[in-house]
């Protein structure tokens, strides 16, 4: 094998430069609070929990379940959560326990009732 062939093989065996770059974190999600009757700290907590739920789950029902159970655990029952791209709602909620927001294209409705 000539020296030139050896160089070609080395170049071909190296992974492309894109494969060697460290993976960057996913871009931040766009958050829009559409309506809220909730303290700002709890709103932020709801958004943070939702972001984590979307990272763990691909199915909207599973995302909603994760958010609901986490709020039940942290703030006592009974929380309700709806996640999706297209839905209507009309709900009754306890004072200071309602938030409706978008994470990118997905809406999250979270409220306490009962």
Automatic annotation (TrEMBL):
Source domain of life: Eukaryota
Keyword Lipid metabolism carried by entry: no
Residue segments, region Disordered: 1-30
InterPro entries in the cross-refs: DLC_sf (IPR037177), Dynein_light_1/2_CS (IPR019763), Dynein_light_chain_typ-1/2 (IPR001372)
Entry keyword set: Cytoplasm, Cytoskeleton, Dynein, Microtubule, Motor protein
Protein's cellular compartments: Cytoplasm, Cytoskeleton
Pfam families (alphabetical): Dynein_light
Keyword Nucleotidyltransferase found: no
PROSITE patterns: DYNEIN_LIGHT_1
Family affiliation: Belongs to the dynein light chain family.
Protein name: Dynein light chain
Classification of source organism: Eukaryota, Viridiplantae, Streptophyta, Embryophyta, Tracheophyta
């Amino acid at each position: 094998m000539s020296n030139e062939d050896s160089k070609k093989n080395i170049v071909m065996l190296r992974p492309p430069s894109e494969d060697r770059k460290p993976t960057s974190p996913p871009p931040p999600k766009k958050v829009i609070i559409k309506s809220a009757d909730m303290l700002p700290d709890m709103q932020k907590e709801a958004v943070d929990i939702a972001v984590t739920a979307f990272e763990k789950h691909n199915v909207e029902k599973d995302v909603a379940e994760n958010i609901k159970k986490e709020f039940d655990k942290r703030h006592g029952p009974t929380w309700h959560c709806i996640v999706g791209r297209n839905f209507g709602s009309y709900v009754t909620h306890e004072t200071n326990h309602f938030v409706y927001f978008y994470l990118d294209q997905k809406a999250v409705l979270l409220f306490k009732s009962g």
